[in-house]
Amino acid sequence: MSTQFRDSIETALHNPNLTGALGRFSEAYRISRAKAYEGIDFEAVRDAIAEIKCSASSRFEELAERFKANAEANGAKVFRTADPAQVRQYILDLAKERGVKRVVKSKSMASEEIHLNKSLAEAGIDVAETDLGEWIIQLAHQTPSHMVMPAIHMTKEEVAEVFSQEVEAGQAPDIPKLVKFARAKLRPKFLEADMGISGANIAVAETGSLVIITNEGNARLVTTLPRIHVAIVGIEKLVAMFEEIQPILTALPRSATGQLLTSYVSIISGQVPNTDGSPKDLHIILMDNHRSDMAKDPKFKEALQCIRCATCLNVCPVFRLVGGHVFGKTYTGGIGTILTAWFDELKKSEDIQGLCIQCGSCVPVCPGKIDIPGLILELRRRLVVEQGQSLATKAIFGVVNNRRLFHGMLRLASRTQKPFTKGRFIRHLPMFLSDMTDFRSLPAIADVPFRDRIKAIQQPKGGQKIAFYSGCLIDFAYPEMGESLVKILNKAGIEVLFPEAQTCCGAPARYSGAYEVAAQNAKDNIQALLETEVDHVVSACPTCTVALKHDFLDTFRSLGITDATAEAERLAAKTIDFSTLVKRLVDAGRLTFKEGEDLGRITYHDSCHLKRTLKAADEPRELLQKAGHELTEMYECDTCCGMAGSYSLKLPEISAPILERKLKNIKDTGAERVVMDCPGCVMQIRGGMDKDGAPIKVEHTAERLVDRFE
Amino acid sequence: MSATFEAFKTRAEAVSAEVHRFVGRDEALAFILDFLGKEGVADAPQCGALWAAGSFLEGIQPEALRQRLPGLSFDITQAASAEARVGISELDYGIAATGTLVQDAAAVAKRLVSTLPPIHLAVLGTERILADMGSVLSHLTPAQTNYISFITGPSRTADIERVLTIGVHGPERLIIVVVDAFQQVTA
Prior knowledge:
- The complex is a heterodimer.
- By secondary structure, chain A is α/β, with parallel strands linked by helices.
- Helix content of chain A is 50%, strand content 12%.
- Helix content of chain B is 32%, strand content 28%.
- A six-stranded parallel sheet of chain B has the order 1-12-7-4-2-3, with helices on both faces. A four-stranded mixed sheet of chain B has the order 8-5-6-9. Chain B has a two-stranded antiparallel ribbon with strand order 10-11.
- In chain B, a hairpin with a 7-residue loop joins β10 and β11.
- At the A-B interface, α2, α8, α10, α11 and α12 of A face α5, α6, β9 and β10 of B.
């Protein structure tokens, strides 16, 4: 991670204006988005969008030619190019030829992508951005921090200062006045401009139409008043048929700003008369800039389904802390990381891809059905392939890939940690390790790991057998969670087996892009877990469960490993998470809750992998309530706790405020306990609560349920 | 029809448009002239009203209206639009689901009067309000016109601190006059 990048994170985190504005917006956004989608079948809409855009990106060449033919039949001039330099040159040539002195622009991310304003200014042309947010950042000599709201990082005071310095002294930080000021100052620019430059939200091949949406009305002026209109359109905006604009127009305003529709939608399908009656000089530039390369990539083709609504920014727990500028100059947030890697270069994503905490919050709300965290993981993998892993990381994974050595070291740690432990916690670590214990205590490594403890448990024999995959945290830090699971399953007459050769699930390696290491972990575990004939493999760690159920297969596929797929599929089919299994046992009458218990009030934290990948949100809640708990939901119950495996070690400065927010939401419920299904979340939240000092118990669902059955 | 109108009105008002419904053209016209008068429309700088005339005014002498309301003009230029206080135009469709007005806006006059003046008064036939975007786009397509405009409420921004502010580059008020007996249009 570069020092410059680390510094930019530090700066962002210490900018209270930024974190305040983004924090408030992220809260308001969820509500307005939900309201805007009332009565709309979001899944149906996004299925339609994904299909339309996927189909379009499979035939960009054909659609671009059709678009060109149809738009030119209506009097437009269409210029196709792969090269940003040619886009700039085309516009400069046109401006020179037509004697253009003044340009007004409505918002175009494609023009930001190619840094057009700089070229125009160098050619002596006066360029004014007219979208209020874009104008503010143009005057402030900044770049957009958000695709939809470019100046969301600035306060009214900062805007007033920029206006006062750059336009006219004495502007007060009064939002309606600042808006009126912008209207008054930009109006003459509209009236005098010789050329209007816009982007487009959709380009329709069938009709040669551009669809442009705005709220301010600036695109209507940009496309109406100047005698020349140039539209810069990335080819990923192409759709085949006119009717296909509807699902996009249904989702884009709702997802982007929580509106049913933006104030203005303009559908321009060719020349229209100018204000003097002459025909509009209409130029449409279809820009590729690596988009067709993306379309040819089996993984990244999906990213072309993006409609630029910025939902992935708005729901991201990291974005709301650091804002857009840490991501770079043009495209920001999750999708921005992917677009930067392609439109710029893979290396440019080296630092920013690390910001993704892999919580999956953006996945269920993406109107393009893009697996953004999955694609960021793929970037990570390719970066490791291209540039290799650091020596330190290699050394760590070298250990993890040797189970005996790895487990031996963990056992050793349980003895050498003694000077730092207080009860079950490590509260302070010395030197460079102190970041890890700054904001939360760490669990002490258990004296006796679960793999040794299970041998002492008397279990029912002769009935059903289920294999338990503990994962490292339960095995070595929280063996009591494993013991609870065994006791519960024993009550249902099930014997729990612990295949000794099981090892790390490979998630740490995979999430660091070290897929070869993850593949070896996967192979070792598949062999260990399929050795014994059992109906199920149960895990009480959602990340491990996802590894067994999904990631092993995906890792093999990514590496082109085919000889282990059948066995990985067999294991995936058998794998089940703890709460889902127990819920089934309760439903089948094999486990019965004790009657009439009043166990007090709890709140439940949804772990990312359990809720969004395994889709088990109701199961643990139902079990806990049936056991006799009153459930009070916390605010943002399914927002990441900031643990995310090694993320909290790599970026503790981001992990800490995410945890702080989670702790506040837990405390605000007034519940005496917070329960969750993931030992990683327990590690983060229990450690945070220990530092915080609040008297709230932090428990795994298995621990909470252990004595609750007849 | 009434339910469709009500849905349209609710949605349009939710985005700060003002909606008025009249049974016939005479009533609507009386309202418009009264409204313009109250808004101070006069033959003076920054006080003009510009009407991009369409079928609503068929059979009415523009001169007669001008006499009733000095400051009203039917002669639309960029300069006049930039000076005017009110722009009036006829819209082709309404969308009930979103409170949206839709227009074949290829004629530049229609765009000038609905973008530049601070107030846009839009006239629409009640029967032209359809349920959703799909219904409207099956009637009005790029094959018919090179510029289709959708207008949903007045111009707005939330670019500073996410605070909603009405009236940035386009009109700060949108007055929608819905007319039941708009025979000239619905025929």
